[in-house]
């Protein structure tokens, strides 16, 4: 038997149990097995895939429309997310909110965060999204060799950046 | 922070979390907790340009360097991009970095401390992956440490956070708390008595993932299983920690204890024979693969914790689990080795250490 990720013989067999999929066996070579076991267990793509499969059950037109929906900030399409399982930027949770909700229910059975919150919040969600958008614009300017525009944008981003917090960390007050 | 690390030196010692002590350490190898965090003003890794990745790495590094915490100051900060493959592999074997970040491209880094209790990966799947590892079942202290590092970093780094969805992550399976708590268990008795299926089944529908490395038929077994929380959204950190640490892990530990007692009662001689044979093979083999090594080390570890054999110390076995892996072996040897050579050197290394000698005299 060959390793699922390369041509080497599979000498390790790894069982993973994840709801709602149940136990799955992976056949891996030594190298990939070690990487796999050292890697933290996380509900794999199967959970995302099965949630997305439900969306696939929708009529073709609806799905096609959803696939083409793009985040205005980072430019990722829902199609790209469906294929990779990875989002493009924090704003995606807002832009694709209603599309992601069934998936969150499927994976977590919940849709509302409970627990730790950051104590500091600098900048509004809009200004942060704007910065991500500017970074993309800068990249595009560089690509078309418009270095003047790129450097303008860079200055604009610099001005918006969160300054390094003053060095009054808790360790000072503790000691 | 120190801007590099001595990898030859690193290969010679095992981390504090591998010392084989701590609560329930006859069965629990380690507790690991990680938090996934992202910078609020950058795209997630997938949509990052090279420039973005570089900016993230530089921003994070500068802000980490601005921290005045005494412990933090003694941490290493290692740029992974220019590192040799073997040094990256060494960090993977020590679980300081993931294979994914080791094998990816572009700007990426890791900050870790001298005793390796913690590491922070920069530009993994998320911008930051903060993790703390401790020996044995030690949820409380592990959480306190990871939480403290998170608080500290939050002072200087603005995290992507949504009032409804919590800490935002590249993959929606980590959103909310961004927390994954994993307990690594050594369950040879449950494997020998063929009860793992039952354990797997009993874990269903309680929001945990069980992952195991094992063999089938004539294959070698390592008998190591990892239990982690499956969900991250809608449950507090305290609830997730309790689920794994107070509910699931203790239950599996109890199953394993019972299985060990039953083995002692009914199959003591067979077991003792198996443990002694494992010692025999590892002490005399001239060539040995990593998986066969793991299989026999697992049996010896069981023999030690069940009081069947007194030598070697469990610390030696834990050290051998680590140092017989490819990158460690090659760093200790001081050069790159082919597969056949590795098998020969591994056998020699095992023989040497099981005879009670130390690294200094191995060649
Ligand atoms: Zn492979
Ligand atoms: Zn986006």
State the main characteristics.
heterodimer, A: 175 residues, mainly alpha, 9 helices, extended, B: 363 residues, alpha+beta, eight-stranded antiparallel sheet, 13 helices, 46% helix, binds zinc ion
> Beta-sheet strand percentage of chain A?
5-15%
Pair with the biggest interface: A-B, 78 and 92 residues
Distance between the termini of chain B: 34 Å
The total count of strands of chain A amounts to: 2
**Sheet of most strands of chain B:** 8 strands, antiparallel
Structural class of chain B: alpha+beta
Rounded to the nearest angstrom, the radius of gyration of chain A is 22 Å
Main-sheet strand order of chain A equals 1-2
- Beta-strand percent range of chain B: 15-25%
Q: Determine the fraction of residues in helical runs of chain B and give it as a percent range.
A: 40-55%
Q: Are any ligands bound, and if so which?
A: zinc ion
Strand order of the largest sheet of chain B: 2-3-4-5-1-8-10-9
Q: Supply the helix-strand structural class of chain A.
A: mainly alpha
Q: Would you tell me the overall average pLDDT of chain A?
A: 77
List the total number of helices of chain A.
Answer: 9
The percentage helix of chain A is: 40-55%
Helix segment tally of chain B = 13
Strand count of chain B: 10
């Amino acid at each position: 038997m060959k390793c699922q990720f390369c041509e080497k013989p599979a000498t390790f067999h790894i069982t993973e149990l994840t709801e709602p999929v149940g136990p799955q066996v992976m056949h891996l070579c030594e190298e990939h097995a070690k990487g796999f076991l050292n890697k933290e267990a996380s509900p794999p793509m199967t959970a995302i895939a099965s949630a997305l499969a439900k969306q696939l059950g929708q009529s073709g037109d609806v799905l096609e429309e959803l696939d083409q929906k793009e985040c205005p900030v980072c430019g990722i399409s829902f199609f790209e997310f469906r294929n990779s399982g990875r989002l493009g930027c924090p704003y995606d949770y807002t832009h694709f909110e209603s599309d992601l909700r069934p998936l969150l229910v499927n994976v977590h059975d919940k849709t509302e965060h409970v627990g730790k919150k950051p104590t500091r919040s600098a900048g509004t969600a809009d200004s942060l999204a704007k910065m991500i958008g500017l970074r993309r614009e800068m990249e595009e300017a560089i690509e078309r060799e418009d270095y003047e525009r790129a450097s303008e944008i860079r200055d604009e981003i610099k001005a918006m950046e969160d300054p390094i917090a003053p060095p009054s960390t808790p360790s000072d007050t503790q000691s | 922070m120190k801007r590099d690390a001595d990898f030859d030196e690193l290969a010679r010692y095992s981390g504090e979390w591998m010392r084989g002590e701590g609560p329930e350490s006859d069965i629990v190898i380690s507790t690991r907790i990680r938090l996934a965090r992202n910078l609020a003003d950058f795209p997630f890794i997938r949509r990052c340009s090279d420039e973005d990745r570089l900016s993230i790495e530089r921003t994070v590094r500068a802000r980490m360097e601005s921290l005045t915490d005494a412990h933090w100051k003694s941490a290493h900060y290692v740029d992974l991009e220019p590192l040799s493959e073997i040094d990256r592999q060494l960090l993977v074997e020590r679980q300081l970095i993931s294979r994914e970040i080791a094998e990816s491209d572009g700007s990426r880094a890791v900050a870790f401390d001298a005793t390796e209790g913690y590491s922070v990966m920069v530009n993994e799947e998320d911008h930051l992956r903060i993790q703390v590892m401790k020996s044995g079942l030690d949820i409380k202290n592990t959480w306190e440490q990871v939480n403290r590092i998170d608080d500290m970093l939050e002072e200087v780094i603005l995290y992507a956070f949504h009032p409804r969805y919590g800490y935002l992550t590249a993959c929606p399976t980590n959103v909310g708390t961004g927390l994954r708590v994993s307990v690594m268990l050594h369950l040879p008795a449950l494997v020998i008595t063929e009860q793992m299926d039952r354990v797997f089944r009993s874990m269903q529908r309680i929001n945990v993932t069980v992952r195991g490395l094992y063999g089938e038929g004539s294959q070698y077994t390592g008998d190591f299983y990892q239990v982690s929380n499956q969900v991250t959204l809608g449950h507090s950190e305290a609830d997730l920690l309790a689920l794994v640490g107070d509910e699931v892990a203790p239950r599996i530990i109890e199953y394993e204890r019972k299985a060990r007692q039953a083995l002692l009662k009914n199959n003591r001689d067979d077991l003792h024979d198996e443990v002694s044979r494992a010692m025999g093979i590892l002490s005399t083999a001239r060539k040995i693969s990593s998986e066969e090594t793991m299989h026999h080390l697992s049996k010896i570890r069981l023999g030690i914790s069940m009081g069947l054999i007194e030598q070697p110390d469990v610390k030696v076995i834990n050290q051998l689990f680590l140092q017989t892996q490819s990158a460690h072996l090659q760093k200790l040897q001081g050069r790159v080795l082919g597969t056949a050579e590795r098998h020969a050197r591994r056998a020699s290394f095992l023989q040497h250490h099981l005879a009670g000698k130390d690294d200094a005299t191995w060649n």
